[in-house]
Design a protein that fits this description.
By secondary structure, the chain is of the alpha+beta class. It folds into three domains: 2-179; 203-254, SH3 type barrels (Roll); 259-344, Alpha-Beta Plaits (2-Layer Sandwich), CATH 3.30.70.100. It has ten helices and ten strands. The strands form three sheets. The chain has a five-stranded antiparallel β-sheet with strand order 6-5-4-3-7. A three-stranded antiparallel β-sheet has the order 8-10-9. A hairpin with a 3-residue loop joins strand 4 and strand 5.
């Protein structure tokens, strides 16, 4: 047996080769049977504690981790064999072999991170609010995913090139100057693009919301990465750059659960004070009784002596933010008020003037 172990092939003893073979096979058996059990254990733990995101990360790194373990196994076996053939390398893996394994390891890690970037893209899509139109949502998700993937690939490529002794400082400096020129040329486009991304994720408004941005007011029809389109109540289409929206106050009227109604109602001069008190209380009670009016918000007050009328200020909140429903509530309240005033014999004033003559006006019946 001792003689057999002392046999050598290309200067490598049989003992060394057998040791390397047994270690390789043993490690391979552990990976083959132990790794799946380890994975199943993690899956049970994640399922028990409902750690869905951790489970997805584990799935993304599952194959790359197995490849890394096999690469380490092969690395150790080759090191044992080569170390026996070249005594000068004992304990030190030659540069070429070491570099090869490092590059393969970098590629595997890059693949794992690349898969993780797709997982992150999916998580962002799930977290994105449903109000974002699918075109804008998809564009944002693709943009973030692509940026992450490009960053991963660039970093990986730079590390690999560094392994082969390439100097990257000059290349990075050149890219920096070029990037600066492009950024200056496309400053407005980049500003709109970044602002659009924040608008989409912040959820300033939804599709179909009634908004006022600066002096523009209307219904939001499209939310894109560079611009937002608003349809005014005159049916005009306004395209607003997202950078303008990011730097302007945004009034979102659709986010209210109630809308205020405020207007004046004038009755004719000559109405007695006691009647004014009676109709004020009557109008207030009538509005409070409407099922779609917040009764605690109703206020009817005799406020002023107008040019041609005695004016009441009427204020209340309607339990609807939708414009069409608001108009229906106002119409119903107005008709009820009109019927009530007619019943009380109180006339609603209209703009008029009374002319008084200091001396009696004499009208002659003489024919001319």
């Amino acid at each position: 047996m001792k003689q057999v172990l002392e046999w050598s092939v290309l200067g490598i003893s049989m003992e060394r080769m057998l040791i390397a073979l047994f270690i390789f096979i043993g490690f391979r058996i552990i990976i083959r049977f132990g790794f799946p059990r380890y994975q199943r254990l993690l899956e049970k733990i994640f399922a028990k504690f409902q750690l869905k995101t951790f489970d997805q990360v584990n799935q993304a790194f599952r194959n790359p981790l197995k490849w890394i373990l096999n690469l380490v196994n092969l690395y150790v076996a080759i090191r044992i064999v080569v170390g026996a053939h070249y005594p000068a390398w004992e304990g030190v893996v030659p540069d070429g072999l070491d570099k090869t394994f490092r590059v393969i390891g970098i590629i595997i890690v890059t693949y794992a991170l690349y898969q993780a970037s797709k997982l992150l893209e999916h998580q962002i899509e799930s977290a994105t609010a449903n109000h974002i139109q699918m075109e804008a949502k998809g564009a944002v998700n693709r943009m973030i995913g692509k940026v992450l993937q490009v960053v991963i690939l660039v970093i990986s490529a730079s590390i690999i090139l560094n392994e082969f002794g390439y100097e990257l400082n000059t290349l990075v400096a050149g890219l920096g100057i070029g990037s600066l020129a492009v950024a200056l040329a496309a400053q407005d486009t980049i500003a709109n693009f970044v602002a659009g991304t924040f608008i989409i994720f912040d959820g300033h408004f939804d599709l179909g919301d009634i908004v006022r941005i600066g002096s523009e007011e209307g219904v939001v029809e499209e939310i894109k990465l560079r611009t937002t389109r608003i349809r005014t109540f005159e049916k005009e289409m306004i395209i607003v750059p997202n950078s303008t929206i990011a730097n302007s106050p945004v009034y979102n009227f659709s986010r209210r659960n109630q809308r205020r109604v405020k207007y004046q109602l004038g009755v004719v001069y000559g109405t007695k004070a006691s009647t004014l008190k009676k109709i004020r209380a009557g109008m207030e009670a009538l509005i409070q009784a409407h099922p779609q009016v917040d009764e605690n918000s109703v206020m009817v007050r005799f406020t002023e002596f107008g040019d041609s009328s005695l004016n009441f200020q009427i204020t209340f909140f309607a339990d609807s933010a939708e414009y069409g429903m608001l108009m229906e509530i106002r119409e119903a309240v107005n008709l009820e008020l009109l019927s009530y005033l007619e019943k009380e014999g109180v006339g609603i004033a209209f703009p008029s003037q009374s002319i008084y003559f200091e001396n009696p006006l004499i009208i002659s019946d003489e024919k001319r």
